[in-house]
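Our preliminary data section would be incomplete without showing what the modeling component actually yields. Below, a chain of 320 amino acids is followed by its predicted structure, encoded as tokens that our downstream tools consume directly.
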Amino acid sequence: MTVWKLQAVESGIVVQAWADRASLEQVVAGFAEIYGTSTSAVRQAWLRAYPQQAHLFRAVPVKRGEDETAVASSDKGMRDWRALNERQQAYLVACFHQDQEAEAHARAEHAAGRDPGPASVWRKLPFTIKADPAFTGYTDIQLRLKEQGLLDPGAGSSLAVLERHGLITLTEDQVEVFPLGPVNRVLVELTRVGRACVRAGLGAQAPVRTPAHLLSAWLWENLVKVASAEPDGLPEAGLWGKARFYLGTGFRPNGAASRGYIYAEPIRVEVAQGTFVKEYRWHLTKVGRQHIVDYLDDYRDLYPQFEMDEGTRAAAAGDL
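Predicted structure:
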């Protein structure tokens, strides 16, 4: 990394010596060290400056069938599942379903622009409140087990077995119960091993995790909305929740630079006194257009529910 190359980059000139992936990754790591920031922040800044080099950062997809770690995890999950009796399996499944409901609620809160809090908090699920149900009622997990006729004084031993197998963790806190006052409550949290065990036993696939270089479902949905509104642009209020802070230019959500895929353009109106801004509309930036062109096929596999037609894809590629 020589001085003249750094000067060229800072002047907006593409350095041909850094035109292959391996070299560029070394440069990104070097800049991260120089500026005291993360490589992902440097990579995003580089893409905003040189969107034509986006293909050099393109991740190589790994097919699920070729993921040896996933296969090994599935095998272990099945062994763990078979080590349980039917009652213990039923308890684990009841906890799993409640865990998945909590996860879906957290995703919905995040998409609506509200902070669901850390997973270490909302994944702790109430199992029982140590008081007469006449005062406390039943928790959601207890109701699931009650419907199956499995809620009885032996619940504690079943949970203890699951914890010994490393499938759940048990903790306690206190809640206010009128008119009793503070009462102890048992919380259950599935471990990753526990979720893998249930999925293996039920024959269910684990959800596909979004690769770091791609957008989450709700951000991709908003980017599609902006792309579909071109060339007129999407009204400022058309984006949901905090999507603008992650997709727009000039924002720093959670202290990291936003991706810079969209920008707000003011719509000005002539009046006698001059001009005033009537509204703002969202448009794709060049790097946003490049991202769509490079990864549309990947997004179609990940989120088939958010389709982008060929006309929109062509419009995105047209200005590159």
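The chain is about 50% helix and 15% strand. Strands lie at 125-129, 168-177, 181-190, 234-235, 262-271, 274-284. Preliminary results of this kind motivate Aim 1 of the renewal.
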